[in-house]
Amino acid sequence: MRVIIIGSGMAGLTAATDLVAVGHDVVVLDKGRVAGGRMSTRVQGEHRFDHGAQHFSVRTEPFARAVRAWLDEGIAAVWYEGSSVTQPDRGREPRHVGLGGMRTIPVSLADQLDVRQSTAVRGIAIDDGTVSVHTSDGTVVGDAVILTPPVPQTHSLLTDSGIPLPDDITTMLDEVDYDASLTAMVVLDGPSGLPNGHLALRDGPVAWIADNQHKGVSPTPTLTIQSTAAFADEHLEADPSSWVDSLTDTAAPHLEAGIVDATGHRWRYSQPRTTFDVGAVRFDAGVPVVLAGEVFSGAKVEGAFTSGRVAARLLVG
What we know:
The protein is an alpha+beta fold and 317 residues long. Helix content is 27%, strand content 34%. The protein has nine helices and 18 strands. The strands form five sheets. A six-stranded mixed beta sheet has the order 7-2-1-11-18-17. A five-stranded antiparallel beta sheet has the order 13-14-15-12-16. A hairpin with an 8-residue loop joins strand 5 and strand 6. The longest helix is centred in the C-terminal third of the chain and has 17 residues. The radius of gyration is 20 Å and the shape is globular.
């Protein structure tokens, strides 16, 4: 079976890895320049920033096995141990990162697969038991398709392509909404002085500050400053020049170094407010269509990994 997967984040790459392992032909398509989705690392000259997902923890044995393999391969590391704000009863847990940047892990996975970056999907056509995915580079034909983008993008792509969703799946997707996030990528003139390389704030525009040099991501002192959902909602459509200073001004009193430069990035679909515990969903539209991604498995990096594994099983049993 030839499977087309849309999206080269953790869900899509995990599904592709599992399908290839059992002998299927898989093509992964993604509009971004580099695999990873929100496991993203920005490079600006000698400066590096994890500007999406900052770290991940481990809750399930299948993900633990994958993480142990990444640690052994030298593409992941433990950053620090901490307690969950939302689940303090779990105690202290290791927070893992991609060694040299969060995107190191998905890029390593993608290197083993047929992944086509900078390939925007324009539409999907299903006819006579085959699916044709029309892209900015041509058309890819297969026997099944897995879609892993954020729910609004997946829903729009299917609707615009004239592919009807079953009523129960439509009802599920209609429940999903996302918090946005605004990120400032900051260059410092010296070490940040942040204890343990990070700081969570409760009030104001800033939710989280991370020291990329402390994480082992950047050879130079850089920070990632992430906004609260409320601040992002208020400023999402504004030019970054209008909100970056608010984030840096809030962070500055907590730093031992001065801010040299700062640039901004928007994450419109940063965190799903509603998630499900189904892993992925499948329906038949003339070919098998599977919807996957972190929203179907409790969010976070592990949720995306789990969703990708379920998506593969839904196709091959």
